[in-house]
N5-carboxyaminoimidazole ribonucleotide synthase
Amino acid sequence: MNILVLGAGQLARMMSLSATHLDLHVLAYDVGSKQVIDPVTFATKEFTLEQAITRSHAITAEFEHIPHDVLTLCAQSGKFYPGAQAIATGGDRAKEKALLDKAKVACAPYQLITEKGHFLNAIERLEMPLVVKTCQAGYDGKGQWRVKRQEDVEQIWSEMATFIASGTELAPHSIIAEKMIPFDREVSIIGVRDKQGQCKTYPLTENQHTNGVLTLSIAGKEKLAIEQQAQDAFNAIANALDYVGVLAIEFFDVQGTLLVNEIAPRVHNSGHWTQQGCHVSQFENHMRAVSGLPLGSTELIRPTAMINVLGQSSIPHSVLGVSDTTSHWYAKEAKPGRKMGHINVSGKDLKQLGERLDDLAAILPEHDYPGVKATADSLI
Ligand code: ATP
Ligand code: MG
Ligand code: MG
């Protein structure tokens, strides 16, 4: 079976690597260069997008900001999973919030903004501090403002107005203000839903962000009650979208109560640990779901952590000397802050995982790999 992935980055690459042994063949469409490529070797294929769609048995996406014409073509093929509606919802925070309300899943109090009056109203009603986000096109914490003081309001509004004005009639731009949530930590759940509507979820993942970018994830330390909240939210959201494939949901944990931050209609960075922590990774399960194959196990084999490699031109090979550690390199051109690869490490229990993270912290400088040492200390 041939599968076409919209987007040709590391997520497409890891989907391809995970699917080869199932005899599934993945090609990727690079929306920037408008070329069809092999996402592992980066070799260019002599197919147009239309030809790639015709020869594919299933089409999916590795990101949510897909050009409208491409999305329409794929939707018309009848082979596109999780579907244009799910992708559009994940790519627009206004649609996302409407979905959460429909599915009755709790999130931060919010207000949509398309003019200044809405912004002033949000400040009055929700009260500062606020997190203000562009509804379209944001990722890795880009396109956000923190509104903390009355003195900043005018300056922030002028920047917001520029964004709103950059939209077109066909694709209008909007902004959302959210109450800043005093969370204890951030967690996410990755799950998969098949074409018959069966849902399976991976264990909850705890995530650490540095400057808005995910730096470290850890799975295998959660309590049942909190897992249950995340699973319920997953089922409600995936069913409301009649979703097929892997879906990620990010939450704020506020004293044991989960509030949804955002959803991602795709495989997700906070699920990369499943490559070593589970029998079937998020990538393979996504490939299985969109191809109509039976889903694989999402059970945790052993506590596992993932460390993102940001902006580095290589991963020190000595990390492989730490037991049950492996690296995943994306073969991209290095740029400051860019996601270049990740390191997965497992232990038979949390204590052993902590010891191994401690060994890794001795190799990986804190400046480039923040939080490894602190996480190790918290587990040992
Ligand atoms: P991603 O790369 O995860 O898609 P993004 O650009 O879509 O990132 P968000 O996940 O919405 O951005 O926000 C980035 C980070 O900002 C969050 O992980 C969280 O740390 C912080 N944040 C976002 N919204 C709020 C909020 N309402 N209250 C407190 N912190 C927030
Ligand atoms: Mg996001
Ligand atoms: Mg996020």
The chain is about 30% helix and 25% strand. The chain has a mean pLDDT of 96. Residues 197 and 242 are 7 Å apart (CA to CA). The longest helix spans residues 224-240.
